[in-house]
Amino acid sequence: METTIWSAIVTSTGQESFGGFPRESYIAYALWGAFFGRIGSNWMYEYRMIEEIETGSVNGVLVRPISFFEYYLSQFMGYKLLTTFISFLVPIFITLTVANGPTIHARLPLACAVLILYLFLVHTISFSVATLSFFLTRVHGFTVAKNIGLTILTGELFPLDLVPEPYRTWLLWLPFSNSVFVPVGYLTGRLGIEDVARGVLSIFMGLAFFGMIAAVAWRAGCRRYSGTGA
Amino acid sequence: MNSYENVIETVDLTRVFLTYRKAEGIWNSIRGFWHREYVRKVALQPTTLRIEGGEIIGLVGANGAGKTTLLKLLSGLIHPSGGDARVLGYRPWERKPDFLRRISILLGQKNQLWWDIPPADSYDLLARIYDLDEKEARNRVTELAELLQCRDLLHVQLRRLSLGERMKMEIIGSLLHRPSVLFLDEPTIGLDIVAQTNIREFLAEYVKRERPTIILTSHYMDDISKLSDRLLLISKGAIVYDGTVPDFMNSVEHVQRLTAVLERPPESPRELASGLVLSPGTEMFTAELPATQIAPTLQKLMEISPLKDLKIEEADFEDVIRKFLEKESRLRATGGPIAT
To answer: What residues of chain A lie within 8 A of the CB of B105, using their CB?
Structure first.
């Protein structure tokens, strides 16, 4: 669907390129963006963390010498690494055979490394959202709203370099662009290594910021927790 | 193995839960955003306890009395509203890893093992969580599974096991790391009589071998009377009795159950004792009476009619506890004198 839309957009301009990039670049972006976007989002494990706190199943973790954050991080990363490996076979196959566009396959390892680093941030944000379960009856709506917002901020819907300044710069300094726009942009030649370096820096800044929120929210939540279900 | 004095100590340990009343209907739901009627429930009144190493404490009380709240505080699941507690020298709610490695809590109505994998896999994971030697952990699993007679079930998905079988697996999981302090919250609830007996026998054997400190809550008085060294009765958040089971039975009024079958039922109401009336047509008479009233009541019955059958039984532990707690609950509700 996205490749159709982008083809139509570029064709409608009557030119071979749009925003400085050819039609093939957008098609490659849409193809890779779909996979990077799915890998870089978190619904399932966020819902699981929320449900564990809501139902009191978290008791099983609280009474053991293991951190709830690390426990779910290991599950989340294990699941994502496996699904990344399997699901990326599809776009790799397509871009090597049918749609042999501007994808620079040699850049794939670094693009994946950025995405994997980004997943630590995804988990930290999910953990922060899950801690709301200590304070509110139902928090699933926050997950939905957050993920919808991230669809735009990550660049999954459209490449962020189409956004006018100064918004473009703000968006690129937010860590969320490292889910899709930075790795896919780098992979398809839209971005260079300096953009990747900035992206990595923004991920670490995001980890510090959301990590602090997560730690404070968890401590406050544990003080308030009533041991539901026990 | 456990040679601590006062493994568990609490000083005025208190827990208050703040909830709110929500009236039905959508308008009241919306109104709840700006106006809420909060309710303060004192789940545990200031409680001071000392429990020595190796003691087995039976904690008994009605639903909502505060038993599980006390367990949750001592295991670190929740923070107190006031007071202090030390378990093995640690404040439980600080949840330090060294503390968590030495305690275990078994919640009778909740699974703590992983639902979709066989218990053997769960125990491997637990061994890593508790930093146990892999080989020792496997030997420990085998040892416990043999005691519980469930070795053949270790490689079956947990979800496919019956409730009694799952409880056995939960027990193995909770004892894998040889905890010094064990909190058992209704471990036999919902189990059939055979499973209850099996688990009771296992716990009795385990306690003899390992001598952990145990706090056990149960609504089944057989669990309490057969396993506990010490009895704590809790009512409306307060400990109302702290002593041994035999001392408790001796301290309450000695009650017996009298059952008599009359040859000639009376044709009109007959008074047997103050407040005790034999209704017309009653063929089988049953009453629980203080032991001192059995003989006079029996004499009155024999004056009314010859007896075809007669049975005098000791009131059982469960009935005695029930009456004691009912009386305490009434006294607390009316502000009357409380047993000490």
So the answer is: 59, 63
In three-state secondary structure terms, B296 is: helix
Among chain A residues, the shortest Cα distance to B16 is held by A226
- pTM to 2 decimals? 0.83
First to last CA, chain A: 49
Number of structural domains, chain A?
A: 1
pLDDT the model gives residue B2: 42
To 5 degrees, how large is the angle CA A63–CA A64–CA A68? Answer: 95
Which value does ipTM take for this structure?
0.80
Kindly report the backbone phi and psi dihedral angles of residue B281, in degrees, each rounded to the nearest multiple of 5, phi listed first: 85, -5
| Architecture of the domain whose range is B8-250 | 3-Layer(aba) Sandwich (3.40)
Q: Which residue has tokens 């096991």?
A: B161
Residue A160 lies in domain = 2-7+22-224
Q: What is the pLDDT of residues A152-193, one digit of tens each?
A: 899 998 888 888 889 888 988 999 999 999 999 999 988 999
- Per the CB < 8 A criterion, the answer to whether A49 and A39 are in contact is no
Comparing CB atoms, the residue among B78, B130, B185 nearest residue A226 is B78
Helix, strand and coil in chain A, % to nearest 5? 75, 0, 25
Higher-pLDDT residue of A181, B247: A181
Contacts of A223 in chain B (CB under 8 A): 79
A80: in domain: yes
Hey, is A183 helix, strand or coil?
helix
- What is the distance between the alpha carbons of residues A185 and B305, in angstroms, rounded to a whole number? 102
Q: Is residue A16 part of a domain?
A: no
